Every structure is written in C-alpha cells, then in structure tokens.
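User:
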Amino acid sequence: MRIGFAIPNNQGVEDPNDLVAIAVEAERRGYDSVWVREHLWHADYVAERLGDRPYHDALTVLTAIAVATERVRLGTSVLVLPWHEPARLAKMVATLDQLSHGRVELGIGVAMTRDEYANLGVDFTTRGRRCDEILQALKALWGEDTPNFAGEFYAFSGLKFSPKPHQSPHPPILVGGNSAAARRRTATLGDGWHTLRQSPEQIRVGVSEIAALATAAGRDPSDLAYSISLPMRFSDKAPSRPPAARTALTGTGADMVETLAAYAEAGVGEVVVAVSSADVGETLEAMARFMDEVVRPEGS
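Assistant: Predicted structure:
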C-alpha cells in the first residue's frame, strides 16, 4: 500500500513556505505522495475552522512543492471542477505535470458549499453536469492538437492548445465523493476513486458498485485505482470499532496497522494521512511518528 501525506494548506498555516517545507520532509521520510485541498472562499464549515487564518491555493502550493521535490506524487484532494474554466485549468495542470516530470494526481469533486457556489456565480444545481462536461473538455484539450468541444456549458474550437501533460494521455483523474453520482463518474470518466472518511466496509461496497458500473460501460474495472484520505491521531485509547468499521487512523501504532490492513483488504491502494493541524511542529512530529511506528516500525 502507498502512503500519502496531506499538506495542511486548508488548516490556516500562516506562511505557505512552511507548507513546502512539510512536503520536502514528507519526501525525505519516504512518503509516496503529498496532497492539497481546495476552497476558494471561507465558506460554511471552512470559516468556522479558520476564522481569519488563510486557506492557501491548491495548485500554487503544489507548483512550489514540485520545484522543491523530486519524487513524491502531487495530488489534489480534491479540486472542485465546477469552479474552474476548463481551458485555464487544463493549461495549469498540464504545466504542473510538465514541471514535475509527470507527478500529478488530479483528484476532482463537486463540493457541497452552496454559499461558495453563490459567491462564484455558479448554479449549485448544475454542479454534477458541469463536472462531467469539464472532465470531457479536459480530455479533449489534453488529447487533441486543435481541440474541438461543444457542450451545455463550454465550447471551443479552431485554436491550438498547449502544453500537453507529461503523462500520457493525461494525469490520473481520481473522482472524489461518496454519492451514487461520484461512483458513476468514477466508472465512466475517471481513472480511480479518491474518497474521504469511508470505512473499509463502505469501501468494499463502493468498489463493487464501481466495478459493475465500469463493466457495464465497457471499461476494465481492474484499471481503476482506489485511494482514501483519513484523519490520523495517536492516542492511548484503542478505537471503539473493529478495523472494518473504522473511518480514521486513531489509537496506537499497532491499532493503525490493523486499520490499514483492513483498507488494503477492501481494495484501497493508497491512504493519505491527514493530521489536521496548523501547528507545523505538531504536523512534522506526527508525520515522523506515523512512518516510524506504523509504516516502517523498528524491526519490521
């Protein structure tokens, strides 16, 4: 199983250079990937968590991380597609993929913050259709020298588009969300499923549903990847649920090993660890401890 680390661009860390330093340390510690999240406004629960503290831009932070690292994959967990114009987003992601020599993992979703949609002037009720259309538009922009596309919301034709991504045909598209629409989107348009706070039992059900939908769509379900982002907190108190029913990495290192094993058995190929703290020192300490006690414990 691959292990990623969530960079706390969403936690109110004041200096974005600290976010880059966390990513550099994650690479040094042996993590496989680093991931950032996206909100454009201090909306709803984001405002409750951050107050006046900053929420740094996902792709800008990843760009800085790309320059400062050599190996770790660069993931978005997730970009909210209906907030983006497809040509500009396609150029930004392709440029980042070129800059990083093909390390981008494009996690995408639709979000549920109605107030944020309203402030952006985007109809909340069309978010699913927009997401599907943008995915199709991105693939046209990345795959065609002179892309032509005509949809309900977006249209372009007659002009060359560059750069193309370093990865062929494009960076992996990982669909976020736990809804039936997200599972359908994964099966028909995505390269994998990247979800949050789902138990191994729930993951097993979701993987089965996605596999059936992919087969019905004429796709090979074995080509799809499965990953999840989970909060992590060490404590002396054992988890209250059995491993297959847990939705977080808590307890001792041994407890977390059991939890990871349950996710692996359910089909998850990568777990992204989220410390959820604006304290850089606390984040680095938890990062090191997780690697030393859970991923690569002494004597293993």
